[in-house]
User: Fold this.
Amino acid sequence: MDTATLIKEARHGSAAAQKCLFEQFADSMLLVCRRYVRSREDAEEIMLDGFYKFFKALPAFSYQGEAALQAWLKKIMVNQCLMFLRRKKVFDIVTDTVPEDIPLEEAALNNLSAAEIFDMIIQLPVGYRTVFNLYVIEGMAHPEIAQLTGIAEGTSKSQLSKARTLLQKMLLQKGLEYGRQKTK
Amino acid sequence: MADKKQNNADSWKQMLDCPENLPGEGMPDKNAAWEKLYNRLYTKPAPRTAWYWIAATMLTMAAVSWLITSRKKNDITKASATAVHDTNSLQPSQAADFNKQPIIKTVFIKQPITHNKGAMHKKTYYGNAHPFYPPQAVATSISIVVNKPPVSIAAPVTGDSAKLVLVFTPKKKLRVLHINELGTVSPYDPEQAALAAQEKNNIKIRFKNNASGNPSAPVRQEDTGIRIPLTN
Assistant:
């Protein structure tokens, strides 16, 4: 059964269609949540909350292709993650001191695998990680990030800068380890 | 440069969004997760009857207490209105017999409210507007001076005898004050009665000025009023 039919059935309250949609998108949505929330249990709970909202809002949704559906689902999940983080008041302790801007060698990141990039991102502190995800992965601008997270625009910029610096350090460490492994 | 950055971001996005690139990060047990979600979607929340009962009880209690307090308030207002009516309803024809007996009238008056705590409030009533002005008694001056506690009242009455019972009704608590209890009642005097009847329609009141209203101010010679400081 294709996604359009599943959406149609799920809109009419078919639990079987809803289950199919859940199984189809659960893995990718869990990954989205894991990028924002380090704890796996919390990420799963957030994902279930997101799917609950998705199914409740489905009658008002007009299907325009699978990419649009996935984007909408992803937006719901990101919002759920930000709500969770705001509830935990993680952004209250975020400072806005701008450190020295060290350009991130993105070419070096290209040599890394997805799993390595994912590990590095989830190792970042929560403020850095959130801003990095929103800016680099989701492609949002700083004013939008500031509005979503409730922090100042300058703080968003400083968090991104710090995240880049930290990632750079991680990359250097990984490069050293990679070099050592090669010489062996 | 910007394009290059955008390309990198897109490639990360694609890499990180694809579950196949991260095999260890998928859902371990989708069925269990679906069961959880299904329960949330289709199980009705337990009715909160206990909360409804608590809310209903509180509302009832509030309504009952409001009714009781409003009823008490109405009783006090009614009593005050009746007393004032009694005093004012005396006709000149009744005044002749009035001197035969001591004036024992219970008048409910409202205690003047002191808005400014520190300030001394003086409230002077004019003519028949004052509820405790007895019709047959020729009062030369009536003034109430309230300086929080104590309250002083000067009410000189020219009648041979007059017994005035004042019942002050503060906001909640009633205080009974007996003033000017001269004791004996004079025998019937027709001249006095005629004078009282005449004065009923033409009441002359001389009001004191601020200085004389002040309890600490010296009393003028012709003022034969009795000053009784009332303390709480």
